[in-house]
User: What shape does this take?
Amino acid sequence: MINRKSTPVKTHDRSAWYRCAGDLAAWAMERLVNRQDAHGAYTRPEERGKDRQDGKGKVPTSYTSKKEVTVWKLARHYRGESHHHVMGLHSTSTDNRCLWGAFDIDRHADATDPAATLAFAMRLYRAVLSRGFRPLLTDSNGRGGYHQRILFRRPAPSRDLHHLLRMIAGEVGFKGEQFPKQANLSERTRFGNWLRLPGLHHTRPHFATVFDGKNWLAGAACVEWLLSFTGDSPALVPEAPPETPKAVRPFPPTWPRRPPGNGLAGRIRAYVDACPNLAEGEGRDDVAYRLAAFLVRDLGLPDHVALPWLERWDGGNSPPKGRDRLLEIVTNAHNYGRHGYGEGA
Assistant: This one.
């Protein structure tokens, strides 16, 4: 029986993680790495939020590194010596298959009741367990955030897994993030999204704990529990129903040809107001990317000016994506935008 009153302990002891870093790295390479050409990365804490040397906004907390995933990097992550050694892994391979799926139960704001996020984590745990999976539930930050993963022995189709996670989320009323976020990768979302690995938090001196079905395990017991996961059968993932054609939503051109009144602000406002507000799974990332590219590349706005416009649009989504994800999308617009800076100005 699940102990619903059990809560994670805060742990700052990295000795077991350091000692078992090699074993954890080998385990992660086999069980969690969907692609080796990119991974999630974090900047040095002292650099985060500073002005970028190229003058294009602020240094982000996290970014997608286009460098190889190696066992050495994974072991460095698990040793937990520095916050900028922390890694994340992408949820989807280049051929749209997944070794794992996950729910991210966030608690970034102090106003959010930690009992509420724990209750959601337990509901998701039970929903995953009821389908024959062995849930891997870890706390993510020691203050009420959780990651609920499902691991597979062999990769499952991303479209089927995405559909299953949406069904589970709907059953328990969960409106947070899920991985994979897209049914399939596209040219625009060619890397997809990544989720931080268990271990050291990227900001706080906290190491993850894991739920074994009754209690929360820390240190050596936590590491041992992680290494015991060999993955479930992908046959447990039901096939997604055939796709139905989506209605075409109006979207503004790359930039308005006739700027409306009130100068640049009026032009931006007209563009933002024309961007559709969507629910989770309806393409919010695509809309956010095009809006971000319009602001920071076509118009050449600095990030701190573009972000409030993105948040103005995001406030109408259900649920909003939030500032952290918008900053990631702004970074993607800088990296992958096709128009030159100021070309639309």
Q: What stands out?
A: The first helix runs from residue 15 to 19. The two ends are 62 Å apart (CA to CA). The chain has two domains: 15-236, 263-336. The chain has a mean pLDDT of 88.
